[in-house]
């Protein structure tokens, strides 16, 4: 197996493949990353990743070129970034570049090869630019010697290994049956549960991927809009309301929690992409666009609430800067968004994070926990934190006021 791209998803994917007994070759453009992996100097806070890398080192080969092992490969998993472009679509530039390099290497192989796209792409990409790139670079049509699958993962940073080993399902878009059979057999070997594999055509699988994440963000934004409404109506415990709503089996309780706006590297990106998709199909008033607006407004709602609770000149301590526990990623995190809004409004802000994250562009406002507890006048707890009970106790002992967006301690 060849995995192209050793980032936050690609490297755990290598580790889980190797844990499943496969010989895995991992390739990345970063010479520094490859050297650190081969010299055993690489470190990650992703749970279980270091353990799996160490235990399966004999099944793992990391390199920055393909030449030494390309003849041994039957599946190429491509897991490279597809960030949002200026229109909200996923950009294919890094993916197409990687694809061209792969096809240049495999086109002269005697044995069959499946190219499996794990990166999230827009609907129409696999049967469009990806198919065209493969056929142009290889000089042959898809289906005989080279085939194509689309197999995006549903994972969250901080639980990537667990999400790969215990998925709800595998989503697999196939260009033909033999390729699908081969990829499905590998995916089945990776799991520790009995997750089903849903096989669709390429276009259907592409739509399913962004639709799932978009549906989740709609639930989050709906719950958050209810919280705003509840505060307007008065005498409402929003947690009791959302709990009751989630008891309806047609809705469910997952993500039906009124708290922080959604953030991180996936949810905002996939929702933007879905909004673009509806707009490009000339379908007006899409729920995706409404979800985006609700999420932006919720940041402003929370910020205004904070401002209404603090006296003039107060210094606000923000506890929680990364977008979730178990990850130091700050991309569109609640802590960063609120900090930026407060700073724009000339509020004094200092921060602390249990994952050692900081607000981009403001390293000087980062503090240690004891420092921020003593220095700040008012506190905002932006997400679940380890040791939250002791933190709240420390705030009480110091007579400090706070708002906990997630209402973790009664």
Write a structural description.
With 410 residues, the protein is of the alpha/beta class. The protein folds into 2 domains: 199 residues, NAD(P)-binding Rossmann-like Domain (Rossmann fold, 3-Layer(aba) Sandwich), CATH 3.40.50; 166 residues, Rossmann fold (3-Layer(aba) Sandwich). It has 14 helices and 12 strands. Strands 3-2-1-4-5-6-7-8 form an 8-stranded mixed beta sheet, with helices on both faces. A 4-stranded parallel beta sheet has the order 10-9-11-12, with helices on both faces. Helix 7 links the parallel strand 7 and strand 8. Helix 8 packs across helix 10, helix 8 runs parallel beside helix 11 and helix 11 packs across helix 12. It is globular. The mean pLDDT is 94.
Topology:
Elements (H helix, E strand, L loop, with lengths): L1 E3 L5 H10 L4 E4 L3 H8 L10 H7 L4 E4 L11 E4 L14 H14 L6 E5 L8 H13 L7 E5 L9 H6 L4 E5 L2 H14 L6 E4 L1 H32 L4 H9 L20 H14 L6 H23 L5 E5 L14 H11 L3 E5 L16 H7 L2 E4 L6 H10 L3 E4 L6
Parallel strand pairs: 1-2, 1-4, 2-3, 4-5, 5-6, 7-8, 9-10, 9-11, 11-12
Antiparallel strand pairs: 6-7
Helix pairs in contact: 1-3, 4-5, 8-10, 8-11, 10-11, 11-12
